[in-house]
Structures are given as structure tokens and as C-alpha cells.
## 1
Amino acid sequence: MAARGLLLASILLLSCFAETCYGMISFSSLKRTLVVSASHRQGLLKAGEDKITVTWGLNQSLPAGTDSAYKTIKVQLCYAPISQVDRAWRKTEDHLSKDKTCQFKIVKRPYSTGNQTLEWAIERDVPTATYFVRAYALDAEEHEVAYGQNTNANKTTNLFDIKAITGRQVSLDIASVCFSAFSVVSLFGFFIAEKRKGRKSQQ
């Protein structure tokens, strides 16, 4: 019984250690093998309205077979350092399981050789901030093995600003005006009908 208990404890310990190792993939250990670009209109972008065209692919200057383990590509919208200051919920951590830099999914699809392009509509829940785009290459186990981004290592170039949706929407304003107009017309009609009834009762 003691030997069996020791064996079970050893297996449990090894499995926990393996899980910890997989969960502790560090960003600094990844190679930058992907080339990523993001194009959009000039000026402040608006959530729920504007679009970003993202292109990614393997750096063609790298040796053949560099991407042999790549099975999936995950592209994300990420906070730039200027929008992480005093915001712990956006903090960058080297351990990817704890990193909060990239919180918005743009696309996740099977890896394909050659450049891939996607036009992404900025989602309505994206908050006001300064951003960049990053792509991760995942292996068969869904672990990050490489990356690329449309900015430099310090994340200071090719950044763009997005403004969140604030206040009432135009559609809501139109609906409100229509409802108010309908209410006024209905009230006016009711008043006329009641006045006619009063006249008839007097006759």
C-alpha cells in the first residue's frame, strides 16, 4: 500500500510539474519570426465603426522549415505601453499565462504559408486606448512558439488610437424622436376625439 501511495504521489507531482511548465511559457523565449502589418484610415479610429486591415506571414529571410511546428495563428489587438500606465488590468507580464497586454481577439485560424490578410471591424466593446497588433504562432498543443507584431520591440512605432463608444447612439436618438412625435400625435388625436364626444353629448 505504501509503495502504491508513493507511486500515485509521484505521478501526481510529475503531472503538476508538467502542467506548470506548459503554463509558464515566457514571451522572452519566443522568436520573432512573423511579419505583421496593420493599415487603417488616418486619424482617430472609432470602435464599432472603423476597420483595420491586418496582414501577417513568415519572415521570408528565415531558413526553410522554421515554421514546421506552426499549426495555428492567433492575431490580437494589444495595449501600447502608454495605455498601460497605472492600469494593472492591462499589465505586461513575461509569463504569457499572466500577461494582460493583448486582450482582444482579431482572428484565430489554421496556419498557412504565405501572407494572409484580414479586414477586421473594430468591435464595439474596445475601450479608448492606444494599440498595436500582435500575432502568435501556436503548435499542435496550442502553445505559443513564435510571434510577430506591427511595432518595434519597445512598442513605440506604428501605434494607433481607438475611441470607445460613448453616450447615446444615433439610432437611439432617432427612435426617441419618432416615439416622442408619435406620442404627441396620439395625444392630439385623443384630445380631438374627446372634444367631439363632448359636443355630441351636449346636442
## 2
Amino acid sequence: MVLSKRGGGAAMGPKPLPVPAPVLPSPYRPVDASWDSEEDAPGPRCGHTLTAVAATGNPDSSDYVGPRLILFGGATAIEDGSSALGGGIRLAGVTNAVHVYDVLSRKWKRYSPVGEPPSPRAAHTATAVGTMVVIQLCLLFRADQANRLLGWHWSCRAFY
């Protein structure tokens, strides 16, 4: 576009055409996932947590457990909450199920950790702390000092 100055005003030519943003390759790529049984499939849900946990053990040993994603809880249905106080929608089918996605094998598996699980919940928080997943004051998955898998255990405590 060329601007020219004539007298006291500026005359402009046609407006420039917008330049489209460059299309960059996506850093994400879809992968196929599988499961051995319907129980292993996590199914659709909302309000869950999905926490990445690093690999444990030596890759050359039998105690090696590769990187995984831990899916916990969530709601498996949404109901009309218009009759509820405040209206809107309401989460339903809240669960405390644990599903694990093995990043290397691309497989989902449902786990039933040992111990007393936390109550079913949705819209909660979870984070990885070393080899554990902390779900609102509950720990899931434990490894020993040598980073060997001890198993999936719940360890819930009340803090006052």
C-alpha cells in the first residue's frame, strides 16, 4: 500500500489484503490406543485428572515400569440440573476408578489399588510427586528407594 500526502490530507489506496498466518505443523500426533477388556477402557468422562508419571527402575531389568498416564475419577454422565439450586448442569456417575495408560505399549488398563480408596470424586486435583500421584491428600502408586515398583496402594490420611 502506498500513502501519498496531498495538501493537508492523506490519500490512501486500496486496503491491503490480510496475510494468512502460516500453518505450522502440529507438535501433537494422534496415536492408537487399545485395551484388553471393556473394564480396562476408561470410557468418556469429564472432571477427571490425568497425571503423567515418570518411568521407574532400570530399563534393562525386570522391575522396569515405563512412563504412564494415571487417570483418576471424574463423572461419566452429565444431568440437567435446572431444578437444582442455581440451575445449570450437574455431574453424575462420579467414580473413583483408576485407569493407567502405558505410554510405551499404548495400552489402557484398569487398576484396583490395595487399601481404602478415596471417595468417588470429580473436579478434583492430582499431581505427580516423585513416583506417587497425590489426589487431594491421598497417595497412589509407591516405589521403594531404589525406584522399584512396590505396587498400587492407597494411602489416605486426614490432615487437620
## 3
Amino acid sequence: MFVYNALLIVFLVLFVIAVDTQNALLLFLAFMGILVLFLGVHVYITALWHLASVVSVLEPIYGLAAMKKSYELLKGRVRMAVILVIGYLTICAVIGGIFGTVVVHGGESYGVFGRILVGGFLVGVLVIVNLVGLLVQSVFYYVCKSYHHQGIDKSALHDHLGGYLGEYVALKSSIQMENLDA
């Protein structure tokens, strides 16, 4: 963390010097350094956060303990996590870019019906991407557990998730909807 903060301060100082001296090359290099540092940390924290959300569902821990567990699980699999997160963020950015271009700023070139159709389609695609992303996060969790030679207790997992798989329970309400007057 010290190295990251030191590099960030160096690039920020270079950025200020480049703005002051109006050196375009130094400005570009400082900006790219800050961008790479920011995106690197952002992608890593996103991977850590997503893995912690899976840990908090599949294990009986949550909060900072889940973050610590995901940090331990992520060791040795950071490159795979970065690839998965960058892929997910890229797909979401493409969908957002198309949505902004066609639906938000489409104007008269696409027409109202076309914009509604494309907007509905893109929302559906985004829902599918998010659901596949959740599936990938769960599979990645098991990949990390097997990488660290941690056993997967299937009976404990079944008991933990069993509360979500219960039978349908009818509501016990005395209110009859057809008797209500509007």
C-alpha cells in the first residue's frame, strides 16, 4: 500500500508540474500513470467485493470477515479475477454506451419506437449479463476454494441454503381483496 500511495503522489506531483509548465508529454504520462493506478485498484477492489458478496451468501460470515476471507481466497487468482472483472465492466460499458448513443441521445434518427425497442432490448441484455456475472462469481468462488485446497462441505452448504428452498407458504391474512371497495 505504501508503494501505491508513493507512486500516486509522484504521478500527482508530475501532473501538477506538467500543468504548470504546459508540457504535453509529461501531462500525458502523468495522467496515464494516475489512470492506470486508479483503474488497477478499482478493478482489484471490485473483484474483492464481488467475491466477498459470494462468501457472505455461501458461508456463515459477513461484513469485514467476508472481505478478509475473500482477500485470502483471492491470493493466487488475482489475474483471473482481473480478467473477469475487466470483461464484465467492458460489457457493461458497451451496453451503456450503446444505450446512451441510441436511446438517450438518439434524437430523430432512430424514432421513438426504435429507441424504446432498443432500450428495452439493452435492459434485457444487461439483466442477462448481471445474472451470468453472478453465476461466474459463484463459480470463481469455488475455483478459489479448490486452488487453496479448501474442502467444500456440501451438506453444510445445503443446510445453509435450505432456508431459501422451502415449500410455498400461503399468506395467513383475513383480508379478502374482492371485498374491498375502491
## 4
Amino acid sequence: MPHTVHLAAVKLLKSVGALSSAKAKKATSRSSNYQNTVSVPLNAEDDGNDATAHNDHNEQEIQTLCPINVSNEIFTVVDKLRKIVCAVCSSPQCKQHWLQQVSENLRKKDPSSKQHALMLILDVKTQWSSTHQMMGRVLDHRDMIDNFVGLHRDLQSLELSNVKWDAIEQVAKWLEAFRSATTEMS
């Protein structure tokens, strides 16, 4: 049954344009235990993976899966997220600027908090659970991402509208259902 959940999650990501046909085929033919990746704790060691994407889109499938208005925005939003994460992690200076920004924001929200600033997570395209983790971290830092993108002239083309943020939230909710099902069965 977990394999069926995995296949459904891969099909969803392919349908919304987050996976190309080749990456979806690779994800469904994996011989390793993909179930382990669903419950693996998040850490920064997996953040440096390739973020270039080549999408195959089937608008009919997307309209079926996502009858709400955000479906048209999902095509580009995952690619934009990957590019933003890559930009944040691209150099020591960008990483330092990101961590300073997150730390300042955390101190403003709760000066007594001992919470540490976390880096964004770059997903592994063939592991749908890592896309879910990337989206979760991005949603946690939405305001800071908007601010970071606005401050860097070369990233302004990656600015995310409210509709794109809604699309991210929708896909994250879908993937959360797959994650819950997989962890319940494991």
C-alpha cells in the first residue's frame, strides 16, 4: 500500500508540473526504500541538490486534480521555489544574509526565543517527500523569502504573487495527505 501512495504522489507532482516525465519515471522505478525518506528528519546536508527543471504539463490532468484557480500557477511555482532556494544557498554571502534575516525576524517575533535560523531545503526531484519538506520550510519563511527576493535585483523575476503562494499551500496540503498515509502504513 505505501508503494501505491508513492506512485500517486509522483503522479500528482508530474501532473502539476513539479516533475518532468523522465524524473517521474525515475521516481517510480527506484529500487531504494523511498518510505524511509518520508520520516527522515530535515537537515541542511540535503540542501545542495540540482534545481534545474524540465517540466511536462498536461493541463487536463491538472484541471481534474485542482479545480480551483491556483492550478495554472503551479506549473512555474515549483521551479521558482527551486531557483530561490538555490540563490539563497549559492554563496557564503547569500547564506549569511539569509540566516541574518531569519534570525532578526525570529528575534522580532519573540525576543526570548531560543529558536535557531534554518536554511531553506532544496528538494530531490525524484523524492516527493523532499518536495513536501521544501514547501513546508518555504511556507514557514514566506515573508522572509518575499523580502529576500525583493532585496536582490537578480531575483526579482522570481517574485511570488499571492496566487503562487496559494498554489504552494495547495500542493503542500496534497503532499501532506500522502505523507500522513505513508507514515501510517509504515
